[in-house]
Each structure stands twice: as structure tokens, then as C-alpha cells.
Write the C-alpha cells for this entry.
Amino acid sequence: MNTAMERVKMLHPSLETGTLLFAIINLLLVIISTAHSIGCLGVWAGTYLLSDHPMSHQEILSAIQEAAVIIIWMILSIIGLIFSSFLLNGIIKKKPQDIKAYYVFGVASLTVAVLVLVGVFICSGVYDLDLYNSAVIMFVLVLYSLALCMIRSTYIKLEAANDQFSHKPLDEKC
């Protein structure tokens, strides 16, 4: 017979399972973002570098701005890909230091995202603000912060499990 506690445990996956699921989804999204940024850079290069018509000064500045945005996006996606790989490796191989590396990256990314969002709110003004997009972005940031809480709990759990089996030399005085 299944007790009520066993049914609850079957409905709620373990902490590591939730973190593993987040790591896989996160890695897939970052791979898609990286591939998309590389594709956009290719389209940009095909549009501006292989074009035969002469460009005005304004078009050159616009092309440079577009390239800078795409390159920054590509660099951030590659950095995210590296840290997402750390998270997946840490959860599969039970390495808390890899999970902690992603956690620190996630907190830093979340902080920067919130600061950028606040800056956009301040610069755009109350009347020019798109409330629907802002609500969606805030919802995603809240979900990401909850995922970071789960990742932190997984890190603490694995760190405690590793510390349990570490043997320290005793200082004995003769």
C-alpha cells in the first residue's frame, strides 16, 4: 500500500531531478541562442560586407551598431553556454563546485538583467512603457530567481554530502 507520504514523494521530483531538468532546458535554450546569434552575424555579413552598392555615412554607422549588438549577444550566449555546461556537468557528476560556478554566474546575470530593466523603465518614461512585455520579462526573471534558489539548495545538499565523507587528519599530541 502506498502511504500518503510516498504518493507525495512520487508527485514531487527530487531536488537533483528538478535541477537536472532546468540544466537540460537551459542548455538547449542557450545553444539555440548561440546558433541564432551566429546565424544573425552571417546574415549581417552577407547584407553589408557582400553588398555592391556604396553606403552613406549613416548606413555605415548603423551597420557598425548592428554588428556590435550581434557580437555582444554572441559573446554573452557563448559565456552562458560555458556556464550551462558547468551546471549540467555538476549535477550529473555530483560536483558541487561546478553547480556553484553556475549559481554565481546566474546571480550576476540576474542582477545585471534587473539593473538593465530598471534603466529601461527610467529612460523610457511611464507613458512609453510597454506593460505587457515588461510583465513577461519580470515573470521570466522571477522564474529564473526561483530556479536559482533550487540550484543553490542542490549545491548545499551536494556540498553537505561531500563534507560528510571527507576525512581530516587529527592533531594528536604525544
User: Anything to note?
Assistant: The CA atoms of residues 93 and 105 lie 19 Å apart.
